[in-house]
Design goal:
35% helix; alpha+beta; 4 strands; 91 residues
Length: 91
């Protein structure tokens, strides 16, 4: 569902045309990274970015889920938009 949300957001909010989706798994983590060439967030301050995340549902849900499972979610907005979700591998 995170991949679908990130692709939808990239097209809907960022007018992205190109996406790079990477899945990586090692002994400890499973990572999903989605990068696009959309408009990103521009020159927002850290506080403005935090407010946007808190107002929205999709990104907030991804961050909360990752943290609940012992992982993390990072967001970058330079030359487009990139989100990386890292979750520990169980067992």
């Amino acid at each position: 569902s995170s991949l679908k949300e990130l692709l939808t957001n990239g097209v809907k909010h960022g007018q992205a045309k190109i996406f790079v989706v990477t899945f990586l798994r090692d002994e400890k983590n499973l990572r999903l990274k989605v990068q696009d060439n959309g408009s990103g967030w521009g020159n927002l301050t850290s506080e403005e970015k935090r407010q946007r995340i808190n107002r929205g549902f999709g990104l907030r849900k991804m961050i909360d889920y990752a943290e609940k499972k012992g992982g993390n979610c990072t967001i970058e907005s330079v030359d487009g938009f990139a989100v990386c979700i890292s979750l520990p591998v169980e067992g």
